[in-house]
Amino acid sequence: MSSGDPGAVTLSFVIPARNEAVMIAATIASIHRHAADWHHEVIVVDDASGDDTAALAREAGAVVVAGTGAGIGANRNAGAALAGGRVLVFLDADVELTAAWQARMPAVCVALAQTPHLITGSHCDIPDRAGWLERYWFAAFARERGSRHVGSGHMVINTAFFRELGGFDPSLETGEDYELCARARRQGATVINDIALRVVHKGFPRGLAAFIRREAWHGRGDFRSWHALIHSRVAVLTVVFLVAHLAGLAALLAGWTGGVLAAMAVVAAVLVASSLRKYAGQPLRVLAVNALIFYCYYLGRGLAALRRLDPRGARHARMAQGVRG
Question: CB of 37 within 8 A of CB of 19?
Answer without folding.
Answer: no
